[in-house]
Design a protein that fits this description.
244 residues, Rossmann fold, 7-stranded parallel β-sheet, 8 helices, 17% strand, binds NADP nicotinamide-adenine-dinucleotide phosphate
């Protein structure tokens, strides 16, 4: 079986691709920066000997997604697994004066992700097998003033995946939601926090192992499940007074 990793220039995505390649699976790496995707694919070919192919992919170009999935399957064979690893926190100013920036965050993290999920699982569903892994965020568990546009898009994506998992369960397709806490990538560059930040390789290992066990929802690092459990219980009238 083969795997497609969308958002392939992310360090987490690269580590995930490496894990599956080490198992001997053919890999398709999709990114906006095709030259970088090609370098990543070449590295995988050398290190693991698998068929690794790079291609162009833009989350917001939803019209291209069904054709893209067909082209990927031509290149690396039927997809046994697809990982939606792309994400964009955007740069939204404090006054939220520019809705275009907010819309882009929603388009990438929710609309683009749901569109690709539909295209990929349509094929898996026809075959009655496959795994879709959606990379979400603990930011989607509760709306906070500091990042609620990104959080709402990731939260909507988690809800979407929940319904998709429910629909596809009887068709042999597994859908796994990953809720990441802090991982050391471009997205968290310069982050000043006392909360431990995980390495991308650790996150990839946890995702790989959880997919094998057909876990429904993975929090990584795992302690984030407890943190978000507590955060979700804070009453709204107290929560809105906090500066989170
Ligand atoms: N790092 C964390 O602490 C953390 C926490 C929670 C969730 N996550 C999630 O983890 C995933 C990986 O992120 P990361 O931390 O590795 O950050 P990253 O390095 O910024 O990776 C984000 C990836 O998304 C791609 N991307 C953004 N917009 C895209 C678009 N329109 N079309 C196609 N690809 C697009 C980027 O491609 P380009 O190279 O072309 O920009 C990049 O490969 C994301 O879903 C993110 O939301 C990360």
């Amino acid at each position: 079986m083969s795997i497609a990793v969308f958002g392939g220039t992310s360090r987490i995505a690269r580590a995930i691709a490496q894990r599956w390649a080490e198992d001997g699976h053919a890999v398709w790496i999709g990114a906006r920066d095709v030259e970088e995707a090609e370098r990543i694919a070449a590295d995988l070919r050398v290190k693991t000997g698998v068929n690794a192919v790079a291609g162009s992919f833009d989350a917001v170009d939803v019209g291209s997604h069904p054709g893209l999935v067909a082209a990927i399957e031509e290149a690396v064979g039927p997809l046994g697994c697809a990982v939606l690893a792309f994400g964009d926190m955007g740069e939204i100013d404090e006054d939220h004066a520019d809705f275009a920036a907010a819309r882009r965050v929603i388009d990438v993290n929710f609309t683009g992700a749901a569109s690709l999920a539909e295209a990929v699982t349509a094929k898996m569903s026809e075959r009655g097998a496959g795994t879709l892994i959606g990379i979400g965020s603990v930011a989607g568990d509760r709306g906070r003033q500091s990042n609620y546009v990104y959080g709402s898009a990731k939260g909507a994506f988690a809800l979407y995946l929940q319904g998709l998992r429910n629909r596809l369960f009887k068709r042999g397709v597994h859908v796994m939601t990953v809720k990441l806490g802090f991982v050391d990538t471009r997205m968290t560059w310069g982050l000043d926090t006392k909360i431990p930040v995980a390495a991308p390789e650790q996150a990839a290992r946890a995702i790989h192992d959880a997919a094998a066990r057909r876990v429904d929802t993975l929090y990584y690092p795992p302690f984030w499940r407890a943190i978000m459990g507590v955060i979700k219980t804070i009453p709204e009238r107290a929560f809105k007074r906090l500066s989170l």
